[in-house]
Amino acid sequence: MEDDNEPEQSSWAHLPDVCLRHVFHWLDDRDRSRAALVCKKWSCAMYSGSLWRCRTITFYGQPSRARTLEFQSALWYTKKFGKYLKHLEVKLSNPYNTPFIKKFQVTMKGLLSHLGKCNSHLVSLSIKYLELDGLIWKNVVRAQFIKNLATFLKRMSKQLDYLNLKGARITLEEGCELLNSLSSLTNRSFISEINIEDFFSLHLSVYSSALFHQTMSKFHSLTILTFNYNCISDELLDILREHSSHSLCTLNIKCHIHDPHGQVVSGMSWANLAKRAPKLNVNFFFERVMKHDHLARILLVEIPVRSISLRSCYFSDPDWTMRPTLTNLLPAYWHGLQKLTLELNNDRELLDNELLQLILSCKRLLFLKVWAFLSVTFMERLLQNRAEKKCILTTIKVRIYTAQYDSTEEERLLADIYRKFKYLIDSELNYFVITYPMV
């Protein structure tokens, strides 16, 4: 006979540990700490290493009370369970004055020192948009932060596989000091992915630096490298060919109008790298570099280009003529180009025919994003060609600029086009098209 006085246990009490950990995984720090008070089993789940492998700490410039508590909690738990940490992301949100930066530096010094002593599993570190060239970074604070970070990278160099210091904006010497920290123990590094986009200060001709070349020669297993075109030289390409050709898969290259980009790079250097690194794909991101002669110097036919993004950032210049770029330069990549992004203020030239011909010539093009002055009929022609399988696009995102506020007629025509190709769009395409007044 059952004892009616025995308390009935909830089904949660019999939940397998693996399921319980999965539930805890979706809770934030506050809810985890509360759940850990329920019973001994749940308290043990709180200490599962799998829950603390990934952490994001956001330093808010002017935080609300809730965000202050969020930050304190994230920092406390990162330290408490630091030995389990594999992926750490640190964010700076609206740093607004020198005292805040000083506090950030002191806090990071303590955190990095603690992790350097207790952690042996960290494989990924991201600290983006430090903007160390800003006025709020006083020289002493800046130097101390770089020293602390370099020391930490040296300690983690054997296990770290991914480093993202995008937007650090530091001098050539400081940047090479940080990168050299990854190889200081053995004079070589086997890290596989580095993001040093906007890592160096503006206007630096990094490509001519022997110090930079020496630093990059210590990386022997790069798979993905993200950086700026002002780092590119024949010497760098030869270094990548010699040390990382067996592993190199992706180069993401940003070229900004304010970064030096007039250096001459040999097509032979690109060809030699591509030959030794058969898996290599190159993605270019141009910002306000729109002149044909500038692009022609950079976009050499020997480069295995997979993606190109050309953005004018709403700027307009009479010297920016896109027609020769669309008809002469980009078609050279017809066999490999898979992604094309164009954000143009082309109010002086209509490019419908040239753009459509380029799309049809690129046999592997899957992704198209265009913000430009186009006629609405361009969309009908493009979709008709897609329906006839003359191209293989799977994503079409278009913002059609108009010269007047009232775009009612254009919107009506786009609706008619959608209805005409509704089955194709709904079944095969990621499709988004709107009009946008540019007045």
From TrEMBL:
SUPFAM superfamilies: F-box domain, RNI-like. InterPro entries: F-box-like_dom_sf, F-box_dom, LRR_dom_sf. Residues 9-55 form the F-box domain. It holds the Pfam family F-box-like. SMART domains: FBOX. GO terms for biological process: positive regulation of protein ubiquitination. It comes from the Eukaryota. This is F-box only protein 39. It comes from Lepidothrix coronata (blue-crowned manakin).
